[in-house]
Design a protein that fits this description.
By secondary structure, the protein is of the alpha/beta class. The protein contains 23 helices and five strands. Helix 3 packs across helix 4, helix 4 runs parallel beside helix 6 and helix 6 runs antiparallel to helix 7. About 45% of the residues are buried.
């Protein structure tokens, strides 16, 4: 026989205390592991680029609004020009995410369920990089949850409407400052809010003030696009997406299930369905519409969008919304879901621990070296320290530094004392990742190299694995356009020989001078 426990009874208080202790303990252990990796794991290539962008303060860049670069600049100002400094603000934001889940779940009215919702949010494997790496999705997800929480408070009429409108306006502005992908979250959240009783709030000036503040968050991005021939919009909306059907995208929900762990994925879906069926009040309806709307949006979009870049993390806000509803759904259930929950939790924890173990590969030079030649090799984390070590003793004041693509340039910029000026050749990688326009705007592209003073010495690094072998000779000979006396000076290997770099020295040719049949020798094998 089920026993209903009064909300204020000692039994209820004990249950709430236990749930809170479990959450705080698990959250603390996970945070400790994330901190260890944030301190020791080398910068991922994109992280290095955001740190490089942070040296060139701007409201927006060619690939993203300015939020991520601003956070790297803030972190290094507070915690030093270190790997951890770059990640400092993101560690804090990632640590706050489970607490935002608790706060949102608390709006549903049960304190114990709120702490349990926080627990369910912890072992989502896709969330693990948030709070370790300096990536825009951390800021994006924090903004999304803060906006949902403000809307939930308004729908519940919790009082303090002014504070909720302020929270909503700031969250919308921060989301716009984080990523272009905040736009679909904004649209889906707005539709869910209006469909769940939010229409009544349209008569209140506070809502329009919040929307106005949120709209201001898009102004820098729009202004940047107007001044750069819509470089950011073109990349995010057109250049990176084929917008033609590809059948592989149909497998996106299956891939989501695998990486989220199948049982947890199924349980989240069940929680949304169960909440719709058995919790007909305004707030659960809003959360279901928001979660399902985002989940379906990315599932339907998958067969038509980018296949070249990792995108499995896009629906994460939907999973966090499902986590807020799951404890109440389980409490009301007596069926298979209740029996499935411990297995789902166990598998999700195991998957999260496995992903934590994978982070040890880039964090440990020994493990990185041993993984060379395998799929586990952390290619985008390693190698640049060795190149920087080869350049540093040779580099003198006045020397120019050139990298053959943006990621290596950003990594060298970070390792060589936050060097702002690193020139970049016109590699296809720059265009693939939407960074070519930004490099040109900074004046570090090939056009910028034309401005180097005659006789200025330059050190040029090539990551040869990024260029097909048949094209390497022609790619290296590109240096003849600007430099004389180009000679190979070192071959540098990443850990375990998993990647290789060629280091050259050259001298800037005088403008208009004949190249004189320049040919660049390839390093001897």
């Amino acid at each position: 026989m089920a026993v209903a426990v009064a909300k204020d009874s000692p039994e209820s208080g004990t249950g709430t205390s236990r749930a809170r202790v479990k959450f705080v303990t698990a959250w603390g252990l996970l945070l400790a592991a994330k901190l260890a990796y944030a301190l020791t794991m080398p910068l991922f290539g994109d992280e290095a680029f955001y740190a490089w962008a942070g040296l060139h303060p701007a409201w927006a860049y060619s690939d993203l609004p300015g939020g991520t670069a601003a956070l790297t600049a803030l972190g290094t100002a507070l915690a030093g020009d270190t790997v951890f400094g770059v990640r400092f603000a993101f560690v804090l934001l990632g640590a706050a995410l489970p607490w935002l889940v608790v706060r949102l779940a608390r709006r549903l009215g049960d304190e114990t369920d709120a702490w349990r919702a926080g627990l369910w949010s912890l072992p989502i494997p896709l969330l693990l990089p948030m709070g370790v790496m300096a990536l825009p999705d951390v800021l994006l997800t924090v903004a999304a949850l803060a906006a949902l929480d403000a809307c939930a408070g308004l729908l519940r009429k919790d009082g303090r409407a002014g504070a909720l409108y302020l929270q909503l306006g700031l969250a919308l502005a921060v989301g716009a400052f984080a990523h272009y992908r905040f736009a679909p979250l904004l649209l889906i959240g707005a539709l869910a809010f209006l469909a769940s009783g939010g229409l009544q709030r349209l008569r209140e000036p506070g809502l329009w003030a919040a929307l106005a503040v949120g709209a201001l968050g898009w102004a820098p991005m729009l202004a940047h696009n107007l001044g750069t021939d819509a470089a950011g919009l073109r990349f995010q909306l057109f250049e990176r997406h084929p917008w033609s059907f590809h059948a592989e995208g149909l497998a996106q929900p299956l891939l989501q299930a695998v990486i989220t762990t199948p049982l947890l994925y199924a349980l989240f879906g069940w929680a949304l369905w169960r909440a719709w069926r058995t919790m007909p009040s305004t707030l659960p309806r809003f959360l279901v519409l928001a979660g399902v709307g985002l989940w379906l949006f990315y599932a339907l979009l998958a067969p038509f969008v980018d296949r070249a870049r990792f995108s499995l993390h896009w629906p994460i806000p939907a999973y966090l919304v499902a986590a807020t509803l799951l404890p109440a759904a389980l409490r009301q259930s007596r069926g298979f879901a209740l029996r499935l929950a411990p297995w789902a939790a166990g598998l999700a924890v195991a998957a999260t621990l496995a992903m934590l173990a994978l982070f040890a590969v880039p964090a440990s030079p020994t493990l990185a070296a041993r993984s060379a030649g395998t799929a586990l090799y952390p290619d985008n984390f390693v190698g640049w320290r060795e190149v920087a070590a080869a350049i540093r003793p040779r580099l003198e004041d006045g020397d120019a530094l050139v990298a053959d693509h943006f990621m290596l340039a950003a990594q060298l910029s970070f390792e060589l004392d936050q060097r702002r000026e690193v020139f970049v050749l016109d590699h296809w990688n720059n265009h693939k990742h939407g960074r070519a326009a930004q490099i040109a705007q900074w004046g570090y592209d090939e056009a910028g190299m034309k401005g180097l003073a005659a006789g200025r010495r330059a050190w040029i690094a090539f990551e040869i694995g990024e260029t097909p072998e048949r094209d390497r000779a022609a790619w290296v000979n590109r240096l003849c356009r600007w430099f004389d006396d180009v000679k190979p000076v070192a071959v540098v290997e990443g850990p375990g020989g998993g990647k290789r770099f060629w280091l050259y020295r050259g001298v800037r040719r005088a403008a208009g001078a004949d190249a004189g049949g320049c040919r660049v020798a390839l390093p001897q094998p």
